[in-house]
Amino acid sequence: SQQGEEDPQALSIQEGENATMNCSYKTSINNLQWYRQNSGRGLVHLILIRSNEREKHSGRLRVTLDTSKKSSSLLITASRAADTASYFCATGDYNNNDMRFGAGTRLTVKP
Amino acid sequence: EPEVTQTPSHQVTQMGQEVILRCVPISNHLYFYWYRQILGQKVEFLVSFYNNEISEKSEIFDDQFSVERPDGSNFTLKIRSTKLEDSAMYFCASRNGVLTGNTIYFGEGSWLTVV
B34 in contact with A at a CB cutoff of 8 Å? Predict the structure, then answer.
């Protein structure tokens, strides 16, 4: 399986600061996706980066992918209290038939 | 924006009973998934489904579980003879399959409590 593992497990920052979360995986991938989950809610897709891409932006989100190190990072700039959630990376093979999730990073943004 | 819908949002069942969780994937999607998340733990893959058959399944998805697409819109997960440890949030997901490696969209989940 291509399970992602996030680091750190928990992160607490002040509103306005940047938050960086990392994801490592073990096998070759076709793509890597980041999701957000508010407590007790579903998974919201944030961004998908393909294995031939190195960086991708979406609003205040920046994702990087280093396939040589089998790692990815998610940067949230100018964080807001509403960004408080758990963030998961998930890696997929060519078919995304069994996309696997890591344990997530619990981000707390203090107002 | 199209979304994956799941029912019920919460179900309480007696141990040993059968449960059916229902999902309506996004209408033009071809690949369907079930995941579960035990409280406070990570999201675990259960099964993927394409062209009316199971594509992949995890070690969790044993004979207690089954999936079905009974018509053109619904995708169900049946859990037979439920156990206390089946208590979890169950997520349905889908993707369109037009592009390889494209986004998987999740529903809000069905919270199952086995008592």
Answer: no
